[in-house]
Write a structure and sequence with these properties.
Layout (H helix, E strand, L loop, with lengths): L6 E2 L2 E2 L1 E5 L9 E5 L8 E9 L10 E5 L1 H9 L4 E7 L9 E6 L8 E4 L7 H18 L1 H4 L10
Parallel strand pairs: 5-7
Antiparallel strand pairs: 1-2, 3-4, 4-5, 6-9, 7-8
Amino acid sequence: MVFLSRKTAQGHLFSPTLIGDKWPTIDLYAEVIGNYNSKMFCFFQVKTTDQGYTAQDKKLKIQVKLQDLVRLSKYNAPTYLIGIDHNETEPFKSKGYIATIRGPQTNRLSSLPTTYELTEANLVLLRDEVVSYWNSVNTMVRKPIYPSNFDI
């Protein structure tokens, strides 16, 4: 949660809420902070490790079940996996990495590429990606007209 709530040169970009074990697969719900026509949000599963990195390709050693990846990919919202390399002696030096989870999932994960560290620049890219997603799906047009059995 610390990585997403970090202040950037553009201010705070996300308002994350810890869901934890109350919801299968999803650990964090985060709303984009800003003046938008509707709420823009995304979901995260977070995996923390003190196992370090693989020797060959320097991927973060984490374990993610196939079932969790399949669930994440089926949400009709942006979904991401965050891997945290926990630094026990200096927690504020811990590093976070992010990957999007979408489309068909066929294998569990035993490591996460460290391509996209959760830096300030990547937080801005993440915010822009989530905003772009919600701007492309126009749910506010659909919501007032979908059929319901419970109209007033």
